[in-house]
Amino acid sequence: MKRLIFCIKNLITILTLFICISCEDEFKSFPSLNYIPCEDNNVVIDPNIINDFECQANVTLNNVQTIRNPSETPINDSKFVGAYLHDSDSNDYIDIDFDNPINLSTHTIFKIKVKTEISGELRVMLEGGTSDPVFMSKNIDGNNGWEIHSFDFSWRQNENHQKIKIFFNYGQNVLGGVPNIYYIDDLFFDIYLDPCQNIEQNLTIISDFECQKNYQLLNGNNNVLITNNPYPDALNNTMFVGAFIDDGTDSSDALIVDFGGPIDLNDNSQLHIKINSSITAPIMAGLYGGSIPQEISNNIIITGEWVNYIFDFSNVDNDHTNLKIFFNNGVSNGNSDQIFYIDELMFLTAPCDEPIIENCIGVVEDINIISDWNCQQNYEIENAIPIVSNPQISCQNRSQFVGEYADNGIEPWDAFILNYGVPINLNNYNKLKFKLFSSSSIQVLAKLEGGSAIEKWSDFSLVNTWQEFSYDFSDSVSNGNTTLVLFFNAGQTNGSDQDIYFVDDLRWEEN
Fold this sequence. Notes:
Jelly Rolls; 3 domains; 1 helix
């Protein structure tokens, strides 16, 4: 029995050996299979393709090995790709030398496909020519899938660069002694398509340094520089911004915008500007060219991030033609080349629920304004109509402070009286205006006395809303009137002895 088992085992061994020898002979009868990156001998070189690691390997990439694609996907179904090993040096990079200036006349978008497990900053730099080096950065999500990264160098079309340097995980050292692996493919320059070609001009935007560059921004005698956003974040991730270089030794140094005509602030009165500053500094925005300069101060108190600063010119006349923004305002002991990055200078509509915070320092008296119960209190009437907080801040009246007039509502001709002491000059400014807020619907009679008296009646007022009344006294220019009288709820006795009416912006305007 044992001999039989031994014989069977030997037979199986012999058969197995025979089969293997037979299979090997059969395998040798087939030719060996080979696959190389490109078997096409008639490829027309595309100079805009740097390297696809197959048929368009037009520029040699040092320290990059051509290998089989470890993951063929719809984004990258190439058979061959490049493999780059990032060693321990944080400044290690792929250096691509064209030996001649890179032609960016039409193809300005550098693209590269990347597959890696390492998250970090992908930085692409142009250098090696007569122009200063420039770079752009993107964040890589190390999800180990193929991703396409684009870098728009259209703003460098006229510059001279001969090299591209590609930094992976820029500024970070590789830990543990094992290099990081980056698979790359399809490095090329794509054609530039103007992203602004279908954008309509919006003149409320001064400049966004991209598609809405509607006015010239001057820094002294030079234009404000346009540069790539050095610190993109959630508030401002646009590609291009302005770089204002402030002379911190010159307290009058300013960014200047000449609008070429009066600025209409009726619908868009708030100046917005995004600033990224490395220092804290006082800042002032001023409108000039009109009858009375208007200046609003603020402070840069947050550094190292984008902040939106607002200057509210809601109470400003529409006769100004120039805007000046003073960075480091009033400082003369700072750096002579302090950089403030700026973006999205624009005039926007003021929110109706926000009061206007006015700075009355340096305000020039306007005798045509009787009182606004804030910066223009020119006829000392506040004892008769004291200053109080606005009962309803709205689009009709965003003043923080207004006047409160207490009327004897059981006396039909109780009135507010302002005696000028001399004839009122109505030659040019003869339209009386003021805003009224009333809890009941009333009429206000405006009367000029102290000469040939004349009366003007208003319509009935709205209830619990700010409303502007206007009276035309152009027919009273030669009457010699010296006194203005306002009768609230004129001729009526249906109120109380303490009826309250709120008034604001009592003034004379040109007819």
